[in-house]
Design goal:
Elements lengths: L8 E7 L2 E6 L2 E6 L19 E5 L5 E5 L7 E5 L2 E5 L14 H11 L6 E5 L5 H8 L3 E6 L2 H13 L7 E5 L2 H11 L5 E4 L4 E3 L5 E3 H13 L8 E6 L6 H11 L3 E11 L6 E12 L3
Parallel strand pairs: 3-4, 8-9, 8-11, 9-10, 11-14
Antiparallel strand pairs: 1-2, 2-3, 4-5, 6-7, 12-13, 14-16, 15-16
Amino acid sequence: MKTVKWTDYEIIATGGGEKLERWGNVILLRPDPQAIWDAPFDLSSYGGLNARYIRSRSGGGRWETLRPFPPEWRVSYGDLTFLVRPMGFKHTGLFPEQAVNWDIMRGIIKGRERPKVLNLFGYTGGASVALAKAGARVTHVDAAKNMVDRCRQNAALSGCPEDGIRYIVDDCAKFVARELRRGNKYDAVLMDPPSYGRGPGGEMWRLEDNICALAEQTAALLSDQPLFFLINSYTTGLQPTVLENILKIYMPAGDVTAYEVTLPTSDRGIELPCGCSGLWQGKRK
């Protein structure tokens, strides 16, 4: 599943383990382990290339600037605006492929009276901003304070209501456990966990080891008339059916779909795989 609505983002070409992207007027070249095919040309020789992320053999890597560009800049998707900038470990602060899920979730909540949505592992808030702009009351949870701060900036740029997002810096599993003790409920949940990560107290997260328990616990936070529960995965090799099975096992009765998430490219008519998503929807009463 993909979105074709981006105008400020484009994949120009892929191959050789890299992707050449346009973010607004800035051209970046980043590693991508899924692009195992041959590139149509030497991507690093592209005339307008501003920066390239070069991996280190010892882990991590660095950005190499080739042409001047701003330290950060804005890109828009419909009525949403986000700040992007080259960050550690090849990231830019936004996952453009997730726009397809923003649209799906906004469609589900359309016409609902300010549903409460919990966004776990919210990162810089692409989904939180999209949902808040559409009228939801979002609780945005992430263990990294700088990422939560960036969500605040994105919300302001997109003109979200001031009470549209509640910002929480915390380990997601611990936050869910506290919400259960408090008896709080949500009409919808989005879970966008990393393959690996650490909480603010050094807690280790590995998706395959932790996702089932967290999904089961978080399902108990759903309200009496829940709308959706969405899980994203970027773990290489994890099939959509895995997410489908998790949702069927741990969610109440409802409709479950799972799908690969991709991005279109301007080169050779191919699509770039970007992980997968599983979506549970409650049955309307």
